Amino acid sequence: MAERVTKAPLPRRAEAPSAFGSDVYERYTALYTWESNQVAHAGMGFFGAAVLVLDAVKLFGPGPWALLGLLFFVVPFMKDVTDFAIDRWRQHPAFPSDRRELILDWIADDLHWGAGIVFAVGFALIAASPAGWLVWIYWAAALAIVATGVLWSRRHFVPEKQAIDDAGLLYYSRLARFTGSVSDADANTVLDFLEGRSTAPAHLVVSGPRGTGKTEMALAIAAEIAIAGARRAAEPSGARRRVRYVSLDALVDALSDERPAEKAPNQPWPPMQAEVLVVDDLEDDSEVIAAIQKVLTELLPRAAKAGFRPRQFVWVAGDADATARWRAWIARTFSGHAIVAVWLGTRAEAEAPPYRWLENVAVSLPIFLGAASVGLWLFAPLGWWILAALAPGIAGFVAAGPRRWPLIALGAGFGALLVVTIGAILG
What we know:
By secondary structure, this protein is α/β, with parallel strands linked by helices. 59% of the residues lie in helices and 7% in strands. It is elongated, with a radius of gyration of 28 Å.
């Protein structure tokens, strides 16, 4: 039998910055997702405005008519209206929505949409009149607005996204979008815990039957703490709270590791350095609970000497019996610390959003624009007649859905009349 050769382990290498590395091996961080989303907004703004600019040049010739490309701002505005309606409908009744943060997010998105739009229009103006005074005024104003807006949005949102990544969340969740059921009293307990009031408990136990959203609630709590900490750190006298989400097994592994805990680049906080620790997947079986609690009781004193001193815990337990066992152990282990349990009820059945038509109308606009541009450039003036049969049908299909043929036919009829009228006027 051949002797088995064991190779020495490779040295641990730090992760590359979030903007680099193949998607095959790199995970999508919150920061990477936000940055990619804003680049996509700028790209869509540039492409859509460029189409409008080309249409204006085709119809009216080069020159100031390129400014009609700025009309593409209607698309992000429609998206903002749709987002507002959907956010209001999806808000949990027990947890307030952060209106200020939503408005800032819309502004940041529109600034990146606007960056692409103004650049597309600006390049068209340069092509038409490279030395014209209108071009210089336009570019000076556009660059000032875009640069200021993009830098402001990064200064505001990048620390928040980094704080989310540092928390090591399983997935992103917010309380305003919580899909489970919770009483008003328990919701107030959660809000007190988040705001760090003097009456807030040091230990919060989230419990409930299977499928009630315990992990979702725990992740939302961790996200709220991380984001609030990032905002607090931006203040002159503020300091962020280090929050970390871990499973029970990961906590046991961290407490067992005798090596000093250090935060690696682009990695979450080590559990040993967390000030707020969210511990998920507490066991339900009574024998396993006793064994795990015995291990934790042995490891915690040694970990405390090594600097493990979280100020607050969120424990995610299961049924009522398991919750009682874990609460008793927490009371014995962390004597003098207040413990409050939050019980989650059964989830309600999912409902279809009442504003779906608004989403479809917003999506129909760029589809209609694209069809109009194809007709104008490839088949003009015949293209207007082709568009009369093509684009309204596409828009009606998107707005009404494939099973509502009467509405589609009605929308196509009115749309055809409108497009034929525009085609007749233009030529």
